[in-house]
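<context>
A single protein, sequence plus fold
<sample>
Here is the protein in question:
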Amino acid sequence: MSPAEKHADILKSTAKRLGFDYCGIAKAEFLESEAPRLEHWLSQNYQGQMGYLANHFDKRLDPTKLVDGAKTVVSLIYNYYPEKQLPHQKGDIKLAKYAYGADYHDVIRAKLTEFLEILREEIGEINGRSFVDSAPVMERQWAQKAGLGWLGKNSLLLNREMGSFFFLADLIIDLEATPDLPLAKDYCGTCTACIDACPTDAIVGDGVIDGSRCISYLTIELKDAIPEEFKGKMENWAFGCDICQDVCPWNRFSKPHSEPAFQANPELAAFTNREWKEMTEETFKRVFAKSAVKRTKFSGLKRNLNFLQTEKGAEFLPAPPDRS
């Protein structure tokens, strides 16, 4: 067995030991085919107010600009599909499944730190960095290149064994490891379920998302008022959106995660629409103290909830000032 093959075995066994569902390996090199796609996407202003997506264009495409001497990109999948979905009844306020429990950034970042420590113990000094939705890294493209799946029409990575309800994370390291082969086939075929189901028409092409129209963007990234054109189209999503995943046939293979930190806060699981709409800042801080929902802040979440109320002609409740 060559050193590169041995390193690949160590990477995959370590990933399994830390609870990752899949581990794929790709050679660290410039993503040449992605450059024109990214440039065109940005030229259409599909990033909306997410100006950071236009920053560090070269670093986003070239991992060697993020880690000196980088040789390998390790792509990792971590399941978050819940055993029970919230809410329990049609018409209830909804938030994306990934936000039910603890903030995934904290949970997975700790695992990646341990991953690098284990590698250094077993192999020796390694220069590398870990990433979980925290730097200019094209996680989905690297995962595809590493053979973990293909990019669906909703632009998400799809895996034949578990669908798409998972987090992606990466290690960029200066360790040589035998790469995996990219998946040669797109298994979406002629299916357009995600395109047909999107209420805001955010999927504007095969794998192309107008981020400025996506409900996840409108409820999380957008700092201004939600445009009136989306009245009646939010489908009760107060934070994030799972519509294009819920309708995807491949997600029939989703299985419940085994990560205790991702279990829904019991208080959140018992929320009624009334409790959502009458939420105080004190309740927000208590329920979402360790959640990704805190990213939108109390004022942002109230803005979203108020917008949902006015969708059906309910009395408008002004959003409170941001006290952060």
Summary: The first helix runs from residue 3 to 17. Residues 11 and 276 are 43 Å apart (CA to CA).
